[in-house]
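Title: Prediction job returns without error message
Component: structure pipeline
Severity: low
Priority: P3
Assignee: unassigned

Description:
Job completed but the reporter wants confirmation the result is attached to the right record. Sequence as submitted:
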Amino acid sequence: MSYLQTNVISHASRVKRLYKEALRQLQSYYVYRHTYRYQAVLMRARFDEHTSEIDMVKAKKLVLDGEKELFLKQHPQRIRFANSVGGVSFGREVLQPDWTLDMWHPLERQQYPEYFARREQRKKEYIKRWEDKYGTDAAEASH
């Protein structure tokens, strides 16, 4: 349930997040750089109008109103970076687990002798570090 807030966010952080999301929404609406930059300057001016607010009640109301306005004016098909969550390429690159190299045929391993020699040495070092830290009983108990 990612929509539930689980930690306290400061007022300054909420304002920064609101500003960043407002700029991302503007980027979705205005695809040409010069029109986007003009709208971004206007948005910054709207935020700068209230930088000297001392009354926290009024400042909190401004942030809530800004979040509501952002929600009401959000773009229906927002621009997302390709590799970010929600992007078209997110999660496409499959990371192979390390143990798959142990399944290689010996003839395949002979094509990269230095790599596999160094790999075997590092595996021995890893096992030795594990046994030094946890002992040999921990390794036997996990099997």
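Comment from assignee: result matches the submitted record. Residues 11 and 138 are 48 Å apart (CA to CA).
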